[in-house]
Design goal:
Blueprint (H helix, E strand, L loop, with lengths): L1 E5 L13 H11 L3 E9 L14 E6 L2 E10 L5 H21 L4 E5 L7 H10 L3 E5 L5 H6 L5 H17 L2 E4 L2 H9 L7 E3 L6 H4 L16 E6 L9 H12 L5 E6 L5 H10 L5 E4 L4 H10 L2 E4 L5 H6 L3 H8 L4 E3 L4 H9 L2 E3 L5 H13 L1 H18 L2 H13 L4
Parallel strand pairs: 1-2, 1-5, 2-4, 5-6, 6-7, 7-8, 9-10, 9-12, 10-11, 12-13, 13-14
Antiparallel strand pairs: 3-4
Helix pairs in contact: 1-16, 2-3, 3-5, 8-14, 12-15
Amino acid sequence: MKIIYFHQHFSTPKGSAGIRSYEMARRLVARGHQVTMVCGSYGGGETGLSQIFQRGRRCGTIDGIDIIEFELAYSNSDGFVKRAMTFVKFAMRSINLALTEKYDVLFATTTPLTAGIPGILARWLRGKPFVFEVRDLWPELPRAMGVIRNPIVLGAMSVLEWASYRSAHRLIGLSPGIVDGIVRRGVLRGRIAAVPNGCDLDIFGKAVQPWRPDGVVSTDLLAVFAGTHGMANGLEAVLDAAAELKRRGRVDIKLLLIGQGKLKAALQSRALRENLDNVVFHDPVNKASLAGLMAAADLGLQVLANIPAFYYGTSPNKFFDYIAAGLPVLNNYPGWLAEMINKHQCGFAVPPDDAQAFADALEHAAADRDVLNGMGQRGLLLARSEFSREKLANAWVDWVIGVKV
Protein backbone atom coordinates (compact mmCIF):
# COMPACT_ATOMS: atom_id res chain seq x y z
CA MET A 1 0.00 0.00 0.00
CA LYS A 2 1.22 3.52 -0.80
CA ILE A 3 0.51 6.26 1.73
CA ILE A 4 1.02 9.96 1.10
CA TYR A 5 1.61 11.60 4.48
CA PHE A 6 1.24 15.36 5.00
CA HIS A 7 2.95 16.90 8.02
CA GLN A 8 4.21 20.45 7.60
CA HIS A 9 6.50 20.25 10.66
CA PHE A 10 8.11 16.85 10.03
CA SER A 11 11.49 16.10 11.60
CA THR A 12 13.87 13.18 12.00
CA PRO A 13 15.72 12.60 15.31
CA LYS A 14 18.57 14.77 13.97
CA GLY A 15 16.39 17.81 14.72
CA SER A 16 15.10 19.13 18.03
CA ALA A 17 11.38 18.89 17.14
CA GLY A 18 8.93 16.06 17.87
CA ILE A 19 9.46 12.87 15.87
CA ARG A 20 6.03 11.22 16.04
CA SER A 21 5.54 11.37 12.27
CA TYR A 22 9.03 10.01 11.62
CA GLU A 23 8.42 7.04 13.92
CA MET A 24 4.97 6.35 12.50
CA ALA A 25 6.26 6.51 8.93
CA ARG A 26 9.12 4.16 9.81
CA ARG A 27 6.61 1.72 11.26
CA LEU A 28 4.60 1.80 8.02
CA VAL A 29 7.78 1.11 6.03
CA ALA A 30 8.72 -1.77 8.36
CA ARG A 31 5.30 -3.28 7.71
CA GLY A 32 5.98 -3.26 3.96
CA HIS A 33 4.19 -0.06 2.93
CA GLN A 34 5.55 2.81 0.84
CA VAL A 35 5.44 6.26 2.43
CA THR A 36 5.84 9.68 0.82
CA MET A 37 6.23 12.35 3.49
CA VAL A 38 5.28 15.88 2.40
CA CYS A 39 6.57 18.67 4.64
CA GLY A 40 7.97 22.18 4.88
CA SER A 41 11.19 23.48 6.44
CA TYR A 42 10.56 23.75 10.18
CA GLY A 43 12.70 25.71 12.61
CA GLY A 44 14.23 23.12 14.93
CA GLY A 45 13.27 20.34 12.55
CA GLU A 46 15.62 18.35 10.35
CA THR A 47 14.34 16.31 7.41
CA GLY A 48 17.71 14.80 6.59
CA LEU A 49 17.75 16.33 3.10
CA SER A 50 20.62 18.67 2.33
CA GLN A 51 20.62 19.28 -1.42
CA ILE A 52 19.67 22.62 -2.96
CA PHE A 53 15.98 23.29 -3.48
CA GLN A 54 14.90 23.08 -7.12
CA ARG A 55 11.81 25.06 -8.07
CA GLY A 56 10.81 25.38 -4.45
CA ARG A 57 11.26 21.81 -3.31
CA ARG A 58 13.74 18.99 -2.81
CA CYS A 59 13.22 15.24 -2.68
CA GLY A 60 15.07 12.26 -1.29
CA THR A 61 14.79 9.10 0.77
CA ILE A 62 15.69 9.03 4.46
CA ASP A 63 15.49 5.78 6.46
CA GLY A 64 13.18 4.28 3.86
CA ILE A 65 10.81 7.29 3.85
CA ASP A 66 10.43 9.18 0.57
CA ILE A 67 10.43 12.89 1.44
CA ILE A 68 9.16 15.90 -0.49
CA GLU A 69 10.25 19.05 1.34
CA PHE A 70 8.87 22.40 0.20
CA GLU A 71 11.02 25.50 0.55
CA LEU A 72 8.67 27.05 3.09
CA ALA A 73 10.58 28.12 6.17
CA TYR A 74 8.57 28.25 9.40
CA SER A 75 9.47 29.20 12.95
CA ASN A 76 7.48 29.51 16.16
CA SER A 77 8.99 32.98 16.44
CA ASP A 78 7.24 34.18 13.27
CA GLY A 79 4.36 36.62 13.60
CA PHE A 80 0.76 35.53 13.12
CA VAL A 81 0.40 36.83 9.55
CA LYS A 82 3.66 35.27 8.39
CA ARG A 83 2.77 31.93 9.93
CA ALA A 84 -0.71 32.00 8.44
CA MET A 85 0.70 32.68 4.98
CA THR A 86 3.15 29.80 5.34
CA PHE A 87 0.31 27.49 6.33
CA VAL A 88 -1.76 28.53 3.31
CA LYS A 89 1.18 28.16 0.90
CA PHE A 90 1.90 24.67 2.20
CA ALA A 91 -1.76 23.68 1.84
CA MET A 92 -1.88 24.98 -1.75
CA ARG A 93 1.23 23.06 -2.79
CA SER A 94 -0.07 19.97 -1.01
CA ILE A 95 -3.35 20.11 -2.91
CA ASN A 96 -1.47 19.70 -6.18
CA LEU A 97 0.15 16.49 -4.93
CA ALA A 98 -3.10 15.20 -3.43
CA LEU A 99 -4.84 15.58 -6.78
CA THR A 100 -2.07 14.23 -9.03
CA GLU A 101 0.06 11.66 -7.18
CA LYS A 102 -0.65 7.94 -7.19
CA TYR A 103 -1.41 6.60 -3.71
CA ASP A 104 -3.85 4.38 -1.81
CA VAL A 105 -4.38 6.38 1.39
CA LEU A 106 -3.92 10.05 2.23
CA PHE A 107 -2.89 10.79 5.81
CA ALA A 108 -2.67 14.31 7.20
CA THR A 109 -1.75 15.51 10.67
CA THR A 110 -2.11 18.89 12.37
CA THR A 111 -0.91 21.43 13.25
CA PRO A 112 -1.85 23.53 11.38
CA LEU A 113 -5.52 22.92 10.74
CA THR A 114 -4.96 23.68 7.05
CA ALA A 115 -3.29 20.27 6.83
CA GLY A 116 -6.76 18.83 6.29
CA ILE A 117 -7.39 20.73 3.03
CA PRO A 118 -5.62 18.28 0.67
CA GLY A 119 -7.43 15.39 2.34
CA ILE A 120 -10.83 17.03 1.92
CA LEU A 121 -10.24 17.54 -1.81
CA ALA A 122 -8.72 14.09 -2.31
CA ARG A 123 -11.72 12.47 -0.68
CA TRP A 124 -14.40 14.38 -2.62
CA LEU A 125 -12.66 14.87 -5.98
CA ARG A 126 -10.76 11.58 -6.27
CA GLY A 127 -12.59 9.30 -3.86
CA LYS A 128 -9.39 8.57 -1.94
CA PRO A 129 -9.40 7.18 1.61
CA PHE A 130 -8.51 9.99 4.02
CA VAL A 131 -7.26 9.63 7.60
CA PHE A 132 -6.94 12.81 9.67
CA GLU A 133 -4.88 13.11 12.86
CA VAL A 134 -5.78 15.87 15.32
CA ARG A 135 -3.00 17.05 17.63
CA ASP A 136 -4.79 20.17 18.92
CA LEU A 137 -8.39 21.33 18.83
CA TRP A 138 -8.67 24.30 16.47
CA PRO A 139 -10.09 26.92 16.69
CA GLU A 140 -10.87 26.07 20.33
CA LEU A 141 -7.30 26.53 21.58
CA PRO A 142 -6.38 29.80 19.82
CA ARG A 143 -9.78 31.22 20.82
CA ALA A 144 -9.22 30.24 24.45
CA MET A 145 -5.71 31.73 24.40
CA GLY A 146 -6.94 34.95 22.82
CA VAL A 147 -4.43 34.56 19.99
CA ILE A 148 -7.17 34.86 17.37
CA ARG A 149 -10.13 37.14 18.07
CA ASN A 150 -11.39 38.00 14.60
CA PRO A 151 -14.84 36.36 14.32
CA ILE A 152 -14.47 35.90 10.55
CA VAL A 153 -11.17 34.04 10.95
CA LEU A 154 -12.54 31.93 13.81
CA GLY A 155 -15.64 31.15 11.77
CA ALA A 156 -13.57 30.09 8.77
CA MET A 157 -11.43 27.86 10.98
CA SER A 158 -14.53 26.29 12.50
CA VAL A 159 -15.87 25.49 9.02
CA LEU A 160 -12.52 23.98 8.01
CA GLU A 161 -12.43 21.91 11.19
CA TRP A 162 -15.94 20.60 10.55
CA ALA A 163 -15.16 19.83 6.90
CA SER A 164 -11.94 18.01 7.79
CA TYR A 165 -13.64 15.84 10.42
CA ARG A 166 -16.63 15.05 8.25
CA SER A 167 -14.50 14.31 5.17
CA ALA A 168 -12.12 11.92 6.90
CA HIS A 169 -13.01 8.24 6.77
CA ARG A 170 -11.10 7.77 10.04
CA LEU A 171 -9.63 10.12 12.63
CA ILE A 172 -6.98 9.94 15.33
CA GLY A 173 -6.97 12.05 18.49
CA LEU A 174 -3.88 12.43 20.66
CA SER A 175 -5.66 12.90 23.99
CA PRO A 176 -9.01 12.09 25.63
CA GLY A 177 -10.13 15.71 25.32
CA ILE A 178 -9.28 15.80 21.61
CA VAL A 179 -11.35 12.69 20.97
CA ASP A 180 -14.25 14.19 22.91
CA GLY A 181 -13.88 17.44 20.97
CA ILE A 182 -14.15 15.60 17.65
CA VAL A 183 -17.24 13.78 18.89
CA ARG A 184 -18.82 17.10 19.85
CA ARG A 185 -18.56 18.09 16.19
CA GLY A 186 -20.89 15.24 15.26
CA VAL A 187 -18.40 12.49 14.40
CA LEU A 188 -19.22 8.97 15.55
CA ARG A 189 -16.82 7.81 18.24
CA GLY A 190 -16.33 4.56 16.36
CA ARG A 191 -14.56 6.49 13.59
CA ILE A 192 -11.97 7.88 16.02
CA ALA A 193 -8.95 6.14 17.54
CA ALA A 194 -7.11 7.55 20.55
CA VAL A 195 -3.36 7.22 19.98
CA PRO A 196 -1.39 9.55 22.29
CA ASN A 197 2.21 10.56 21.84
CA GLY A 198 4.58 7.75 22.70
CA CYS A 199 7.83 7.11 24.50
CA ASP A 200 10.95 6.64 22.40
CA LEU A 201 12.60 4.10 24.65
CA ASP A 202 15.26 3.33 22.05
CA ILE A 203 16.43 6.96 22.39
CA PHE A 204 15.78 7.86 26.03
CA GLY A 205 15.74 4.44 27.64
CA LYS A 206 19.25 3.30 26.80
CA ALA A 207 22.67 4.08 28.27
CA VAL A 208 23.96 7.47 27.09
CA GLN A 209 26.68 9.91 28.09
CA PRO A 210 25.10 12.29 30.65
CA TRP A 211 25.89 16.00 30.55
CA ARG A 212 24.87 19.20 32.32
CA PRO A 213 25.10 22.76 31.02
CA ASP A 214 27.68 25.20 32.34
CA GLY A 215 26.74 26.60 35.73
CA VAL A 216 24.98 23.46 36.98
CA VAL A 217 27.08 21.32 39.33
CA SER A 218 26.53 17.66 40.13
CA THR A 219 25.03 18.39 43.56
CA ASP A 220 22.37 20.77 42.19
CA LEU A 221 18.84 19.54 41.68
CA LEU A 222 18.35 19.99 37.93
CA ALA A 223 14.77 20.43 36.66
CA VAL A 224 14.45 20.58 32.87
CA PHE A 225 11.86 22.05 30.53
CA ALA A 226 12.50 20.98 26.92
CA GLY A 227 10.19 22.59 24.40
CA THR A 228 8.87 25.71 22.74
CA HIS A 229 9.07 29.04 24.60
CA GLY A 230 5.72 30.44 23.44
CA MET A 231 2.45 31.78 24.81
CA ALA A 232 0.92 28.35 25.24
CA ASN A 233 3.79 27.13 27.40
CA GLY A 234 3.31 29.55 30.27
CA LEU A 235 7.00 29.63 31.20
CA GLU A 236 6.50 32.71 33.34
CA ALA A 237 5.40 30.16 35.95
CA VAL A 238 8.90 28.69 35.98
CA LEU A 239 10.43 32.12 36.52
CA ASP A 240 7.88 32.83 39.26
CA ALA A 241 8.98 29.63 41.00
CA ALA A 242 12.63 30.58 40.49
CA ALA A 243 12.00 33.93 42.17
CA GLU A 244 10.34 32.17 45.10
CA LEU A 245 13.29 29.79 45.42
CA LYS A 246 15.68 32.75 45.43
CA ARG A 247 13.72 34.30 48.29
CA ARG A 248 14.13 31.03 50.17
CA GLY A 249 17.87 30.93 49.49
CA ARG A 250 17.71 27.69 47.48
CA VAL A 251 20.64 28.28 45.16
CA ASP A 252 21.08 24.50 44.84
CA ILE A 253 17.97 24.10 42.64
CA LYS A 254 18.51 24.96 38.97
CA LEU A 255 15.75 25.33 36.38
CA LEU A 256 16.85 24.69 32.80
CA LEU A 257 14.79 25.98 29.86
CA ILE A 258 16.01 24.35 26.67
CA GLY A 259 14.45 25.31 23.35
CA GLN A 260 13.42 28.33 21.34
CA GLY A 261 10.29 30.37 20.71
CA LYS A 262 8.74 33.78 20.40
CA LEU A 263 8.92 34.60 24.12
CA LYS A 264 12.43 33.34 24.83
CA ALA A 265 14.04 36.79 24.63
CA ALA A 266 11.45 38.25 27.01
CA LEU A 267 12.00 35.42 29.48
CA GLN A 268 15.75 35.94 29.34
CA SER A 269 15.32 39.67 29.90
CA ARG A 270 13.17 39.09 32.97
CA ALA A 271 15.63 36.56 34.41
CA LEU A 272 18.47 39.05 33.94
CA ARG A 273 16.45 41.94 35.36
CA GLU A 274 15.47 39.99 38.48
CA ASN A 275 18.87 38.31 38.85
CA LEU A 276 17.35 34.84 38.53
CA ASP A 277 20.67 33.08 38.17
CA ASN A 278 18.96 29.81 39.13
CA VAL A 279 17.37 29.78 35.65
CA VAL A 280 19.58 28.50 32.82
CA PHE A 281 18.68 29.00 29.16
CA HIS A 282 20.00 26.68 26.48
CA ASP A 283 19.61 26.39 22.73
CA PRO A 284 17.67 23.41 21.30
CA VAL A 285 19.57 20.13 20.87
CA ASN A 286 18.87 16.99 18.87
CA LYS A 287 17.31 13.91 20.42
CA ALA A 288 20.61 12.17 21.16
CA SER A 289 21.94 15.19 23.07
CA LEU A 290 18.60 15.62 24.82
CA ALA A 291 18.79 12.01 26.02
CA GLY A 292 22.20 12.74 27.55
CA LEU A 293 20.86 15.84 29.27
CA MET A 294 17.90 13.98 30.70
CA ALA A 295 20.20 11.24 31.96
CA ALA A 296 21.89 13.91 34.10
CA ALA A 297 18.69 15.70 35.16
CA ASP A 298 16.57 15.03 38.22
CA LEU A 299 13.12 16.24 37.18
CA GLY A 300 11.15 17.09 34.03
CA LEU A 301 8.93 20.19 33.94
CA GLN A 302 5.57 19.79 32.20
CA VAL A 303 4.36 23.39 32.09
CA LEU A 304 1.47 25.00 30.20
CA ALA A 305 -0.49 28.23 30.48
CA ASN A 306 -3.51 27.94 32.75
CA ILE A 307 -6.14 27.54 30.03
CA PRO A 308 -8.89 24.93 30.64
CA ALA A 309 -8.83 23.87 26.98
CA PHE A 310 -5.33 22.49 27.64
CA TYR A 311 -6.36 20.28 30.54
CA TYR A 312 -7.53 17.36 28.44
CA GLY A 313 -6.85 18.68 24.94
CA THR A 314 -3.07 18.27 24.62
CA SER A 315 -0.60 15.38 24.41
CA PRO A 316 2.83 16.99 24.94
CA ASN A 317 5.89 15.25 23.51
CA LYS A 318 8.02 16.37 26.42
CA PHE A 319 5.98 14.48 29.04
CA PHE A 320 6.56 11.20 27.23
CA ASP A 321 10.25 11.97 26.71
CA TYR A 322 10.61 12.61 30.45
CA ILE A 323 9.10 9.33 31.58
CA ALA A 324 10.97 7.42 28.85
CA ALA A 325 14.17 8.81 30.38
CA GLY A 326 13.07 7.73 33.86
CA LEU A 327 12.54 11.31 35.03
CA PRO A 328 9.78 12.18 37.50
CA VAL A 329 7.54 14.97 36.20
CA LEU A 330 6.42 18.22 37.81
CA ASN A 331 3.13 19.25 36.15
CA ASN A 332 1.47 22.61 36.84
CA TYR A 333 -2.04 22.34 35.40
CA PRO A 334 -5.03 20.00 35.93
CA GLY A 335 -6.15 17.36 33.45
CA TRP A 336 -5.40 13.88 32.26
CA LEU A 337 -1.62 14.09 32.71
CA ALA A 338 -1.94 15.42 36.28
CA GLU A 339 -4.36 12.57 37.01
CA MET A 340 -1.89 10.07 35.55
CA ILE A 341 0.99 11.46 37.61
CA ASN A 342 -1.06 11.17 40.80
CA LYS A 343 -2.35 7.70 39.97
CA HIS A 344 1.08 6.26 39.20
CA GLN A 345 2.98 8.40 41.73
CA CYS A 346 5.55 9.36 39.12
CA GLY A 347 5.99 13.02 39.99
CA PHE A 348 4.27 16.13 41.35
CA ALA A 349 1.01 17.74 40.21
CA VAL A 350 0.72 21.30 41.54
CA PRO A 351 -2.05 23.89 41.06
CA PRO A 352 -1.69 26.42 38.25
CA ASP A 353 -0.47 29.94 38.95
CA ASP A 354 0.88 28.96 42.38
CA ALA A 355 4.58 29.81 42.63
CA GLN A 356 4.78 28.69 46.25
CA ALA A 357 3.36 25.22 45.50
CA PHE A 358 5.71 24.95 42.50
CA ALA A 359 8.70 25.87 44.67
CA ASP A 360 7.51 23.54 47.46
CA ALA A 361 7.49 20.61 45.02
CA LEU A 362 11.03 21.42 43.91
CA GLU A 363 12.18 21.57 47.51
CA HIS A 364 10.51 18.22 48.24
CA ALA A 365 12.30 16.77 45.22
CA ALA A 366 15.65 18.07 46.45
CA ALA A 367 15.05 16.84 50.01
CA ASP A 368 14.78 13.13 49.25
CA ARG A 369 16.55 11.82 46.16
CA ASP A 370 15.57 8.21 46.95
CA VAL A 371 11.87 9.10 46.80
CA LEU A 372 12.54 11.08 43.62
CA ASN A 373 14.30 8.12 42.00
CA GLY A 374 11.36 5.90 42.90
CA MET A 375 9.02 8.30 41.13
CA GLY A 376 11.24 8.17 38.06
CA GLN A 377 11.26 4.37 38.03
CA ARG A 378 7.47 4.26 38.26
CA GLY A 379 7.29 6.70 35.35
CA LEU A 380 9.64 4.50 33.32
CA LEU A 381 7.47 1.47 34.08
CA LEU A 382 4.45 3.43 32.83
CA ALA A 383 6.37 4.37 29.68
CA ARG A 384 7.21 0.75 28.96
CA SER A 385 3.81 -0.73 29.77
CA GLU A 386 1.43 1.81 28.23
CA PHE A 387 3.24 4.30 26.05
CA SER A 388 6.04 2.52 24.23
CA ARG A 389 6.35 3.90 20.70
CA GLU A 390 6.35 0.37 19.28
CA LYS A 391 3.03 -0.53 20.89
CA LEU A 392 1.29 2.72 19.96
CA ALA A 393 2.76 2.86 16.46
CA ASN A 394 1.49 -0.62 15.67
CA ALA A 395 -2.02 0.38 16.78
CA TRP A 396 -1.72 3.55 14.69
CA VAL A 397 -0.61 1.63 11.58
CA ASP A 398 -3.46 -0.88 11.94
CA TRP A 399 -5.96 1.98 12.10
CA VAL A 400 -4.48 3.83 9.09
CA ILE A 401 -4.12 0.90 6.71
CA GLY A 402 -7.48 -0.54 7.74
CA VAL A 403 -9.39 2.45 6.31
CA LYS A 404 -11.95 1.65 3.64
CA VAL A 405 -13.95 3.97 1.43
